[in-house]
Amino acid sequence: MFAQLSTTTLSFARTARALLATFGVGAALLLLGAVAPANAANETVLGSESCGASTCHGAIAPWDGASVLQNEYITWKNQDKHSQAYKALLSDKAKKIANNLGIGAPNRSEQCLACHTYNVPKERHGPRFTRTEGVGCEACHGAAENWLGTHMTGVRTKADRQRIVGRGMYPTEDPVKRAELCLTCHMGTEKDRRLNHKMQGAGHPRLSFELDTFTAVQPAHYVIDRDYHTRKEVANGVKVWAVGQAIALKRRAAAIADPRRNRMGVFPEFTNFDCHSCHHPLEKPRYERTAGDGGPGVPRVNTSNLTMLRIAVSAVDPALGQELKTKGQALHRSGTQGVEAMEAAAQNLARTAHAASQKVAAAKFDSGQMLSLLKALTDEARRGNFNSFATAEQASMAFGAVIAAMGDGGYLSNDAYDKLDAALGEMFQTVENPANYSPYRFRSAVNKIKAATPASL
Ligand code: HEC
Ligand code: HEC
Ligand code: HEC
Ligand code: HEC
């Protein structure tokens, strides 16, 4: 019934990761500085073709000696689904969704264009920009009108980078900013990028996102080499994962807390709940008593991000981890206490999620913390804390992020990495199709990860 991360996506995640591991230089654990916000968004969008000249970012193959790969356009055009995002609106699947919603042609509906293109108003369209390019360079890197000239004269230092960000280039290297950017489309916003249960019911694929995995799968069109380190602050994959969880939780909690967003109809908005707590065959009851949930027969708020964040935060601030747990349980319980109680509990949780996002963004996540995280994930999985499909799916990407970061950092022997990677492959398979998901098979993959985890580094 549901769309899911495709087989290709997840196996590709592993291949992409293997490539990153080959190219990656050891993690330099620099703290991220504050980044100036992008300018007020009214600049002209120049269009991906403007970036794609062969002497700019449109080279057929990476350039030797250049500071960036220079073939970003070709990677995006040939391998990145974002370049197909508009075309997806011409598919039969899109037409069916639009037809169910009664909104006419999907490629002309603002509702769909909002996320499937860089949907800026006509007056901001430059001569070479067209929405048919899909999610192009500037949808992520910011409208180029004011920064194009400066960036061609060269960005060599962190100060140069700050200057260009001040001209409206988006600070995609900052994990907080990156999470905020991706989630506007991969989770949706209330204002213009909206994906509610009505659209899910009409047949739109279920959205599920993890920042580190999705950054690798996109695929990455950049290499973190020595030159990159001179221009940009670098966050390792575990930090990227943890920050992604924190921002997702903050947004989810804020969406539930806002009466205008939560009470669109008779019921609270269903997309904030775990889809599979309602949608699964009655013939195969799967409820298992879990401490702190709302109890049997109560739809569960989707707290998969909370569970992951609690584990990440506990590695750096156990008390804050405990606070997240308590507030998460309060939110689950509020499900039986009426919608106002639920909104209040969500508001409370959003504040803690914000504090946690700052905590993980400032944390180091060194090799010792990575190993503790891997062990913590394993222990929690074995205790049955990841039984729901949504949590198991997030957990598998969490295992992937931590193992990949350990590989990138050079903290694992080849043998340990290969064994962990094989167990991870098995784990990804168990969450590929929600209809066939079995917590028992998931836990068996977890046991293989446990067996392959080194006792110390
Ligand atoms: C909040 C942002 C958002 C909105 C609004 C949105 N989409 Fe999507 N859509 C996505 C994302 C993100 C994906 C990719 C999901 C994934 O694979 O993780 C997607 C995937 C799809 C796919 C599957 C594409 C494929 O390659 O298989 C179709 C079809 C689709 N959307 C159609 C629509 C239609 C029709 C509308 C308007 C009714 C719409 N979308 C509105 C974000 C959105
Ligand atoms: C879906 C979002 C997204 C799209 C679309 C996108 N990028 Fe990126 N790009 C990123 C992210 C994330 C990074 C990595 C963080 C960083 O280095 O800023 C990045 C990094 C880069 C870099 C930096 C490499 C370095 O060494 O500093 C270049 C150059 C680049 N992208 C060019 C492009 C071009 C050209 C296009 C369009 C053809 C494009 N990007 C489309 C998200 C995107
Ligand atoms: C303007 C909206 C938008 C933004 C911003 C955006 N995406 Fe997407 N993304 C989409 C849409 C729409 C699709 C589905 C395209 C399709 O399948 O045709 C997609 C697809 C993807 C996919 C492929 C998923 C799959 O199932 O194969 C990955 C990976 C991805 N996005 C990563 C990212 C990352 C990482 C960022 C942030 C750096 C990001 N996206 C930012 C709209 C967006
Ligand atoms: C609180 C319970 C509940 C939650 C949570 C929920 N749904 Fe639904 N869903 C329903 C109901 C009720 C219907 C309408 C009856 C039906 O068609 O099954 C429905 C219908 C649907 C349909 C149409 C089914 C069909 O056979 O045509 C899809 C697809 C769907 N939901 C997807 C989702 C996704 C994806 C999520 C999570 C993001 C989700 N639902 C969360 C209760 C829920």
Jot down its keywords:
22 helices; Flavocytochrome C3, Chain A, domain 2; disordered N terminus; binds heme C; mainly alpha; 53% helix; 457 residues
Describe this structure in words.
- With 457 residues, the chain is an all-alpha fold.
- It has a domain at 39-170: Flavocytochrome C3, Chain A, domain 2.
- The protein is 53% helix and 0% strand.
- The chain has 22 helices and no strands.
- It has helices at 7-23, 48-51, 72-79, 92-101, 110-116, 137-141, 148-152, 158-166, 175-186, 197-201, 211-217, 226-231, 237-257, 259-262, 275-278, 304-314, 318-334, 339-362, 367-382, 389-408, 414-430, 439-452.
- Helix 17 (318-334) packs antiparallel against helix 18 and helix 19 (367-382) packs antiparallel against helix 22 (439-452).
- The chain is globular and about 60 Å long.
* Order of SSEs: HHHHHHHHHHHHHHHHHHHHHH
Small-molecule components bound: heme C
Tertiary shape: globular
Quick one: CATH superfamily of the domain at 39-170?
Answer: Flavocytochrome C3, Chain A
Q: What is the level 1 CATH name of the domain at 39-170? A: Mainly Alpha
Structural class: mainly alpha
Mean pLDDT across all amino acids: 88
Count of alpha/pi helices: 22
> What value does the Rg take, in angstroms?
22 Å
How many angstroms separate the termini?
A: 43 Å
The biggest sheet, with number of strands, parallel, antiparallel or mixed sense and barrel status, is: none
- Fold-level CATH name of the domain at 39-170: Flavocytochrome C3, Chain A, domain 2
What portion of residues belong to β-strands? under 5%
Query: Are there runs of 5+ residues with pLDDT below 50, and where?
Result: 1-12, 18-40
DSSP strand tally: 0
Q: What does the oligomeric state look like here?
A: single chain
In percent, how helical is the residue content?
Answer: 40-55%
At CATH level 2, the architecture of the domain at 39-170 is Orthogonal Bundle
